[in-house]
Write a structure and sequence with these properties.
- With about 230 residues, this protein is an alpha+beta fold.
- It has two domains: about 130 residues, no CATH class; about 90 residues, Arc Repressor Mutant, subunit A (Orthogonal Bundle), CATH 1.10.10.
- Helices cover about 40% and strands about 30% of the residues.
- The protein contains eight helices and nine strands.
- Strands 1, 2, 3, 4, 5, 6, 7, 8 and 9 form a nine-stranded antiparallel sheet that branches.
- Strand 7 and strand 8 form a beta hairpin.
- Helix 7 crosses helix 8.
- The longest helix is centred in the last third of the chain and has 41 residues.
- It is elongated and about 70 Å long.
- The termini are far apart.
């Protein structure tokens, strides 16, 4: 089970023509929930803050959005239901064993972050497709069900856990891995030397803990072996 956060900075979002058109109309749009999924697309409950001189009807002029109903409006935002046919949103909801968590927000200042959870193979496939559709600035594994080993990560810092988890998720430790340290560093937005230092320190801590556990298991076996020998005499 994986839980992954995918983040785009505002400059990267502006590189997408479709997203840029949305940001020309709104200051922010927050998806509060997914109401239904049909062949037409996804009906979403959204809270929208328009830019000055923009109208809610302008959103319906976009290729992948259509306002269905307007519910509430105050000085700060408008609550609406809208039909979304954007490939990224549909992809996140239609893939099996994937959950796209709400709320998520597109903001003209902070960018956008999507949080996804699901079966490891499905999450990995989705992340690969996202990279092709709209390359993110950062992908981080927030948590993995179960620890690495038996408490072997207890002494790691939160940053070390995140990096080791992401490296494992990207297949860095697999025998036929094509994931290099440089590729990991680029994806995490870090210098290669800094990432290498984090990984080396984390690996040393895990190996030391694993060695201690193995020694303890050996010590526990010896008394049992002695007792068996004595009982046989």
């Amino acid at each position: 089970m994986r839980k992954v956060a995918i983040r785009w900075n505002i400059n990267s979002l502006r590189g997408s023509n479709e997203i840029s058109q949305i940001l020309d109309i709104v200051e922010r749009i927050e998806i509060l929930g997914h109401l239904s999924i049909s062949k037409r697309g996804i009906t979403q409950l959204a809270e929208i803050k328009l830019r000055e001189f923009s109208s809610i009807d302008d959103i319906s002029n976009l290729s992948n959005f259509q306002i269905i109903d307007k519910y509430e409006e105050d000085e700060d935002s408008i609550l609406v239901s809208l039909l979304c046919t954007h490939p990224l949103a549909i992809l996140g909801l239609e893939m099996e064993n994937i959950h796209l968590q709400t709320p998520y927000k597109l903001c003209s200042e902070t960018g956008m972050e999507l949080r996804i959870s699901g079966v490891s193979t499905s999450v990995r496939k989705l992340v690969s497709l996202v990279r092709e559709l709209m390359p993110p600035d950062k992908i981080s594994v927030q948590s993995i069900k179960g620890d690495i080993g038996n408490g072997w990560t207890d002494e790691l810092t939160s940053r070390q856990k995140e990096i080791i988890s992401y490296a494992a998720y990207r297949g860095y430790y697999e025998a036929d891995s094509q994931t290099t340290l440089k590729k990991l560093a680029d994806e995490l937005g870090m210098a290669r030397s800094t990432l290498g230092e984090h990984i080396q320190r984390a690996e040393l801590i895990i190996l030391r803990k694993a060695t201690e556990d193995l020694k303890l298991q050996k010590d526990n076996l010896n008394p049992n072996a002695q007792r068996t020998m004595t009982d046989g005499i």
